[in-house]
From TrEMBL:
Pfam families: CRAL_TRIO (PF00650). Residues 101-276 form the CRAL-TRIO domain. It comes from the Eukaryota. Gene3D superfamilies: CRAL-TRIO lipid binding domain, GOLD domain. This is SEC14-like protein 2. One of its GO terms (cellular component) is cytoplasm. Residues 284-411 form the GOLD domain. It comes from Scylla paramamosain. PROSITE patterns: CRAL_TRIO, GOLD. The lineage of its organism: Eukaryota, Metazoa, Ecdysozoa, Arthropoda, Crustacea.
Length: 420
């Protein structure tokens, strides 16, 4: 079989090899030959990591995804894979499809799998122009939003496995159609939204290498260039070459070259409609839309603009130009330092460091201003070394206002992590 421009054999049953057009069009490695040196790299990489992987992830194509992401540097590819496997363990990614997501995400997170392209890869439609990021991030914790995105990726991975078995050749990539109709400055000027987007981009690049076959960005307005300029530095050069950007026209013809009409809703250049004739097929594709305020955490749980005391959260008030440093002792490597906080009316600076000898400190989470008055900020840090960890709330940039913070910070030992 010829895949990514390489001759290789996979052994996925007796149904024969896949079509010659499996290589991603325009990919940086589409015409790269599998040289003796690269064959040796695959062999070395397999020998090192095979014990860590399930059988269906030990074939050439699955291993190549990690090697491509690290330019065939076996040491770096091994390090990347091991970090990703640890990430999957820590976040419980292997069971994320069993997670019962918050209702607001299932109703207003714009995404849906339309069908498959001509080579069997799943095709996802993301009507991002209809996404109310402010509403979603005001209604769920950031961790839940990210977890839901991971669930979509894992649903795609499961579909690939099913396609692999049905078609008899490896399906390891997905196609995405990002529809930016109604995209406006509101999508790029709210910092919490962009922070989450950038975090997801980095998560995708670190844990789903060569997962993307092609991304079609359609109906892109001029203001999209502002958002794209922020995102591009975080994308691998191989990924960038797989992104095709269109304005209001020209994209339907390109989609039809790669995807049969019967695999797409009529609205996106295909022939399918819902039983009621809706050309967008909302029964398959969640279209997003404005999130009703009844879902907002600030209304359903507590009013973020006027904080109320909470038995699970401690309270501090930082004076004008003040700072508060909280110290936590970590005794076992691999423990998690976890935090959750929100502020009243205004943002606050936040950072984490670890004390070293002679009064020095190692910065682990750089001090930065956080819009925790809008969305509850939460996160965690894996403490690879024992010692004293310092959580800092900083109001030194504000000489006019004191700040009230409700927070919870805890150290979770490694033994307790497996129980969650």
């Amino acid at each position: 079989m010829r895949l990514f421009g390489w001759e290789t054999t996979f052994g996925y049953g007796s149904s024969g090899s896949g079509p010659e057009s499996l290589e991603p069009e325009g990919g940086a490695d589409a015409n790269m030959e599998l040289t003796p040196e690269r064959k040796e790299a695959i062999s070395q990489f397999r020998e090192r990591v095979a014990p860590l992987l399930p059988p269906d992830q030990r074939h050439d194509h699955a291993l190549l995804q990690w090697l491509i992401a690290r330019s065939f540097n076996v040491d770096k590819a091994e390090q990347m894979l091991k970090k990703s496997l640890e990430w999957r363990r820590e976040l419980g990614v292997d069971t994320v499809l069993e997670w019962e997501a918050p209702e607001v995400l299932t109703k207003y997170y714009p995404v849906g799998m339309a069908g498959h392209d001509k080579t069997g890869c799943p095709v996802w439609v993301i009507p991002y122009g209809g996404c109310d990021m402010r509403g979603l991030l005001s209604s769920v914790k950031k961790a839940d939003y990210i977890r839901y995105t991971i669930r979509v990726l894992e649903a795609s991975r499961r579909d690939m496995q099913q396609q692999t078995q049905q078609l008899g050749w490896p399906v390891n990539q997905q196609c995405c159609i990002f529809d930016l109709d109604n995209f406006s400055l509101k999508h790029v000027t709210w910092k919490p939204a962009m922070d989450v987007i950038l975090e997801l981009v980095q998560l995708y690049e670190a844990n789903y290498p060569e997962f993307l076959k092609c991304a079609y960005v359609i109906n892109a307005p001029k203001v999209f260039t502002l958002a794209y300029a922020l995102i591009k530095p975080f994308l691998h050069e191989v990924t960038l070459k797989k992104i095709k950007i269109f304005g209001q026209s020209g994209w339907k013809e390109v989609l039809r070259q790669d995807i049969e009409p019967g695999q797409l809703p009529q609205h996106w250049g295909g022939s399918r409609t819902d039983p009621d004739g809706n050309p967008k097929c909302p029964s398959q594709i969640c279209l997003g839309g404005e999130v009703p305020k009844k879902y907002y955490l600030s209304l359903s749980k507590s009013n973020l603009s006027k904080l109320t005391e909470n038995e699970n959260l401690s309270s501090i008030t930082l004076s004008k130009g003040g700072k508060k440093r909280l110290k936590y002792e970590v005794k076992k490597p691999g423990s998690h330092l976890r935090w959750e906080f929100r502020t009243e009316d205004f943002d606050i600076g936040f950072g984490v460091s670890r004390k070293l000898k002679k009064g020095e400190e190692e910065v682990l989470v750089p001090l930065q201003r956080v819009n925790s008055q809008l969305v509850t900020e939460e996160g965690y840090l894996v403490c690879t070394e024992p010692g004293t960890y310092v959580v800092t709330f900083d109001n030194e940039f504000s000489y006019m206002r004191s700040k009230k913070v409700l927070y919870s910070v805890s150290v979770v030992k490694p033994d307790n992590l497996t129980e969650e």
